[in-house]
Specification:
121 residues, alpha+beta, 19% strand
Amino acid sequence: MFTDLKELPASLVQEMIVQRYIDDPLLIEGLKFDLRIYVLVTGAGQFDAFVCREGMARFCTQPYEAPKKENYKDFFRHLTNYSINKHSEEYKESYEENGQMSDPNQNTKRTLTSCLASLAA
């Protein structure tokens, strides 16, 4: 993460995706999250779109704090990427060691249904 494009190392300037940070994100249980809603689009001109009944929500593993110079590189707090958060000590798998499904409302990756129920509550 960076706060100014001048901070981006020249060696990284290639094809890339840059996202703008949302200053005041919606939180669940104090955690930042993103939603994955899957849509199948058929055709090019006249087309149909089918929205999957289920999606996914990915959560940070550390409680959100507004970004400051002291914490903006705390990726577990600001980024929802699975590839980052799976390395956190707070990461919660969907299945426990005994193979039983854990509480879907406490996992780091949750179903869209579970996430929407938390928002409704």
